[in-house]
Amino acid sequence: MEIDLLDFVEQCRDLAKQALGKHAGEPASGGFARWVHVVLHCFRLEEGHSYRETPNRLKYMAEIRETLGLDRDDLPDYTTIYKSFDRLKMWVWRALLRVSAQQHPQSGHAALDSTFFDRRRTSSYFRQRSGSTVQTLKVTTLTDVESLAVLDVHITARWKHDTKTGPQVVRRNADDL
């Protein structure tokens, strides 16, 4: 499925500003507004660029730079983009997920599903350097049964039983169900 990149960036901009509310204009890092960092990550992932390629591609995309309010000479460095991804707090991603899920019609019925993600393939050097000993993450999603929109995500390194995690996820979304 082809997607018009400019429309995608504009939609991401609108969703990010809506999700972040009054915090949208606050700089996250690098002196750029928080919503700009979120949209840059969406752009990077949609196009499949590396962090290093993203500023180079933006140099030649005048309409996208204009949508983001960036000058050709004032583009963020790839290290700024890379570091901002880790600096964005979980509430930013939750708000973005909530706003994007509202774009789909919701039936009011949801399904809860848990699965595990194995991190053993992560290089052992990286795990030692970062001090991470977690090898498997448990991910629980709350998904609308008709639109298949993900309403909420719960990620934990402690493998609580679903009877503990499930009510917590449902309570967070009780108004939508």
Automatic annotation (TrEMBL):
Superkingdom of origin organism: Archaea
Record's signal peptide: none
GO biological process, one term: DNA transposition
InterPro entries: Transposase_11
Domain (Transposase IS4-like): residue spans on this chain: 107-172
GO molecular function annotation: DNA binding; transposase activity
Name the record gives this protein: ISH9-type transposase
Naturally occurring in which organism (per UniProt): Natronococcus jeotgali DSM 18795
Phylogenetic lineage: Archaea, Methanobacteriati, Methanobacteriota, Stenosarchaea group, Halobacteria
